Amino acid sequence: MSNDENSNETTELGKKAEVASNAVANVVSKALGLKESNPKVFFGAIGAVVVVILISMMSGGGGPEKSMAKTKVVDLSIGGTYELDAPKTSGDPDALVRLVAVPGSLAAFDDTDKKDRMGDCKHLPEGTKVKVLQVQKVFKTSLQAEIEILAGACKGQKGWTFAINLR
């Protein structure tokens, strides 16, 4: 490209920018003129725009209501027999339930290591039969439970899990 072509493109862009800025300035001057000549109409128009925006924000989608699946927390009894369940996995057939040694560490584990998933009976499949040994309650609702595994290779092992993982 030559310098003449570059300067022509620059002047064309400059003219387009000037036209746009003139249009914006024209709209702003008309709005300010309306504010001076008829303030009731000016502020009424602003209020109408705000009301339309608020109504559109509050109206929602209007489609079929989709809500998150609610998990029913079972009122656990000490000595009761339950099955492990993983309700937050959306029906994953390979879902595993995590057991930990201390209830306070439930949220502080990192299971990115594959060896961790296979060893020491820390991850158990859904449907494993367990017995509740202790229950930690918060506001009269079971939050965590110490369990003993009743079946499989991990029979007799103990660990803690969330109460929602028991059905």
List unreliable stretches of 5+ residues: none
What shape does the CA trace take?
Answer: elongated
Secondary-structure element order, N to C: HHEEHEEEE
Over all CA atoms, what is the radius of gyration?
Answer: 33 Å
Helix percentage range: 25-40%
Q: How many discrete structural domains?
A: 2
Strand content: 15-25%
Mean pLDDT: 76
Descriptive account of the structure:
- The protein is of the alpha+beta class and 167 residues long.
- It folds into two domains: 3-58, no CATH class; 81-165, no CATH class.
- 36% of the residues lie in helices and 20% in strands.
- It is built from three helices and six strands; from the N terminus they run ααββαββββ.
- The protein has a four-stranded antiparallel sheet with strand order 1-4-5-6, with no helix packed on it. A two-stranded antiparallel sheet has the order 2-3.
- β5 (141-149) and β6 form a beta hairpin.
- The longest helix is centred in the N-terminal third of the chain and has 35 residues, at 3-37.
Describe the secondary-structure layout:
Elements: H1 3-37, H2 39-58, E1 81-83, E2 96-98, H3 114-118, E3 123-125, E4 129-138, E5 141-149, E6 158-162
Antiparallel strand pairs: 1-4, 2-3, 4-5, 5-6
Helix pairs in contact: 1-2
